[in-house]
UniProtKB/TrEMBL annotation:
Its cofactor is FAD. This is FAD-dependent oxidoreductase. The keyword Flavoprotein applies. It comes from Mycolicibacterium tusciae. InterPro entries: FAD-dep_OxRdtase (IPR006076), FAD-dependent_OxRdtase_HpnW (IPR017741), FAD/NAD-bd_sf (IPR036188). Keywords: Flavoprotein, Oxidoreductase. Coiled coil: none annotated. Residues 2-368 form the FAD dependent oxidoreductase domain. Signal peptide: none annotated. Belongs to the DadA oxidoreductase family.
Length: 371
């Protein structure tokens, strides 16, 4: 088939790659010169540890696909580094003990480590914590490199064309008309427009059950030693559904979150990029209109938390940014799809799971659509 894809982020690119793998011809349109949304404004984490039980199988499948892609396309920068959620309080340790005892702990690669075991696994962590929840299945990719690398890989098949700085303006059947008046004819159209819920997406699919979520993040200059795993703090227990249970309920009752973290719906995630810098975040804002500036309080808080874990000052902050992603309001849905009878599909709403789940969602979509 001839497949046209609107959107150059992780969902659009993963769907393009899946279609090319299955022998189809793909034309992909991106309104910017490069993807500039949540696809590149993230940690690059393939995050197994906190996913809800209902998502675990598809998450593990996606990790398998990312690892395969990393072997085929080294520029993606896949690395099976795992993660450590560093624990500072009895309540956080209790949550870790509960999840390690569950039946899915082995699938997630969970192990509860004491302080000495944490230091052995990640010697850079010389600071304040009492234990760590290790997830050996977590991984990372280079989010700012992955899309160009995947496009180059597809272009080598001679069945893929990428149109940068090209906005889809109208749909006639499964034909896309862009902002230069060009017609992109195909047998199937996939619209993967990320956090753009209005315009063409609304015309095609109406009001979808999705919301937009804003976050703040930052990146340091290179750290002069390896951070051998991604790291998180105990606040991630409060955020990810995979940690829900009696121990988490007790943690919420007995150990209130720091005021800054609570106000900005925060957790710590930190991953070292291949160039040595640390990507650190993040906050969550759910009510629009979002501010157009970034708040300094959360950055100061996150710097303090990471420095406590490292037991040393961070390198200088190189850059800060905000981003917005699209999230289904129904927590039981991985993604929203709208399929009119004319071969047009809208794929959106994975929330902060887009980088983790992109390849597996594309595989599922391809099976559902019949590619």
């Amino acid at each position: 088939m001839r497949v046209t894809i609107v959107g150059g982020g992780i969902l659009g690119t993963a769907h393009a790659l899946e279609a090319v793998r299955r022998g189809h011809e793909v034309v992909q349109l991106e309104r910017e010169t490069e993807a500039r949304g949540a696809t590149v404004r993230n940690f690059g984490l393939v995050w197994i540890s906190g996913r809800a039980h209902a998502e675990l199988a598809v998450t593990l499948r996606s990790r398998e696909l990312w690892e395969r892609l990393g072997q085929e396309i080294p520029r993606i920068g896949f690395r099976a580094a795992g993660s450590l959620t560093l624990l500072r309080t009895p309540g956080e340790v209790a949550v870790a003990e509960e999840v390690v005892a569950r039946t899915d702990a082995q699938s997630r690669g969970f192990a509860l480590l004491d302080r000495d075991q944490v230091r052995q696994l990640n010697p850079a962590l010389r600071g304040k914590y009492v234990a760590g929840l290790h997830c050996s299945r977590d991984a990372a990719v280079e989010s700012r490199q992955a899309m160009p690398a995947m496009r180059d890989y597809m272009a080598a098949t001679d069945r893929y064309t990428f149109h940068a700085a090209t906005e889809a303006r109208a749909i006639q059947g499964s034909v896309v008309i862009d902002d230069r008046g060009r017609r992109h004819e195909g047998d199937l159209l996939l619209i993967c427009a990320g956090a753009a819920h209005s315009g063409l997406v609304r015309e095609i699919a109406g009001e979808l059950p999705v919301r937009r979520v804003r976050l703040q993040m930052m990146q340091t200059e290179p750290l002069d030693e390896p951070l051998t795993t991604a790291i998180a703090d105990g606040d991630s227990f409060r955020y990810y559904p995979g940690f829900a249970g009696d121990a988490l309920d007790a943690l919420r009752r007995n150990e209130p979150q720091d005021a800054v973290a609570d106000e900005h719906h925060m957790q710590l995630l930190c991953v070292q990029r291949l160039h040595g810098g640390l990507t650190i975040g993040d906050t969550h804002e759910y009510t629009e209109p979002f501010a157009f500036d970034v708040s300094e309080g959360p950055y100061a808080y996150l710097v303090d938390v990471v420095e406590q874990f490292l037991g040393r000052p961070l390198p200088p902050i190189r850059q800060r940014w905000a981003g917005v992603y699209s999230q289904c309001v129904d927590p039981d849905q991985l993604v929203c799809r709208s399929s009119p009878d004319d071969g047009v599909w809208v794929v959106t709403g994975p929330g902060g799971r887009g980088m983790t789940l992109g390849p597996a969602l594309a595989e599922q979509s391809a099976d559902l659509i019949g590619l």
